[in-house]
Amino acid sequence: MLSYLARHSSVFLMLAAIVGFIFPSLSTAIFPYLPYILFFLMLLTLLGMNQNALIKAIFKPGIWRYALIHSVLLTVISCAIAKMIGGSSAFILGVAGVAATGSLFATPAIARSIGLDALEAMAMTIASTLAMPVVLFFNLLIFQDDGFQLDMVSYIQRLLIFIAGPMLFSAIVYRYVPNPLLLRVHGKISQFTIILVFAFPFGLVGTFRNVFDISLSSGLFYSAVGLGLTVLFFAVGYFLCRRPNDIDSALLAATAAANRNVLLTYTVAGSFLGPEFVILMGAIQIPTASLPLFVRWLKPQLLKRAQQNEPVSNL
Predict the structure, then answer these.
(1) How far does Cα 286 stand from its chain's mean position?
(2) Is residue 190 part of a domain?
(3) Average of per-residue pLDDT values in the chain
């Protein structure tokens, strides 16, 4: 059963978001447990990676260029667009919170499921997650009102628990547990990582459904915003990270840029980001959950086009 769910994870990820939208009471019921699921998802994902290879990948300059695009550049672009369409200060703050958010820690599992490099996806995820606290802090200072005061003690405590905690624990495990044993154990539980991801679109979309129940026009507006943000993040990641004859790298950057760990941002600073962020957090779930299926369709199209554009050899 687990192997079947893992093989068809792209379909079930999208279905989880749709089911959560249809049954908002069930979605709302699971929401309080999502931070605990997030912690274990981050931990299991890190335990499944070769630590030495991962550290080398993280220190590649291209990974940190990606992190700047993911957090800083996309904050500037998305907030500028939000300002141009006449968004309120609360709306722009919500957009800034989403733009500062690092990649979802399930991105390596998602990348693996669609045939992309899981190790590089993990390096992108860690880099964007490490950049998130700094970018988010400045976004809060810039876009919050004059009366804003960030509780640094609470902020740092949450960062330590939900970011440093899993990283430190996985490093300790790798230091003291023999690698063969660790790989055998992780091989048996690795399928849980992609299945744990189903909980996030299911549990985060319920509050967004409540907007529809209150006002259909508001629900449609935020749906358009959620889709627009997902498309923007995907397109910027793809076009700015393209390499000659390397479609996989561009698709990986696009996928990592569009998959946002908004629950981590909410857990760390949700009380400072306001209600608009909570709505946007739900609004991006269905388009984000649909990305793996879209990439599965898009990748062969891009490969076919690239082959057609290759110069014909004289030999």
Answers:
(1) 13
(2) yes
(3) 85
In a domain, 84, yes or no: yes
Pairs from 51-54 (Cβ < 8 Å, separation ≥ 24): 51/170, 51/171, 51/174, 53/119, 54/119, 54/122, 54/123, 54/126
Domain span at 180: 1-305
Phi then psi dihedrals of residue 101, to 5 deg: -65, 135
Indicate the Cα dihedral angle 82, 85, 91, 93, nearest 10°.
30
The b-or-e profile of 151-175 (16+ CB within 10 A means b, else e) is eeeebeebbeebbeebeeebeebbe
Nearest by Cα to 276 from 208, 204, 205, 206 = 208
CATH number where 37 lies: 1.20.1530.20
pLDDT for the residue numbered 46: 79
Q: How many Å apart are CA 160 and CA 240, to the nearest integer?
A: 32
Q: Would you say residue 313 lies in a domain?
A: no
Is residue 165 in some structural domain? Answer: yes
- Which tokens sit at 129? 């997650």
pLDDT band at 193 (very low <50, low <70, confident <90, very high): confident
CB atoms within 10 A of CB 116: 22
Collapsing DSSP to helix, strand or coil, 196 comes out as: helix
Query: Per the structure, how many domains does the chain have?
Result: 1
Contact 95, 257 (CB under 8 A): no
CB 130 within 8 Å of CB 159: no
In order of 251, 252, 301, 305, 306, the CA distances from 297 in angstroms are: 12, 14, 7, 13, 15
| Nearest-angstrom CA–CA distance, 277 and 298 | 30
AA identity, residue 109 = A
Tokens of 71: 């957090």
- Read off the pTM: 0.88
Residue range 97-137, pLDDT digits in tens: 999 999 988 888 788 878 888 889 989 998 998 898 889 88
The vertex-99 CA angle with 97 and 104, nearest 5°, equals 95
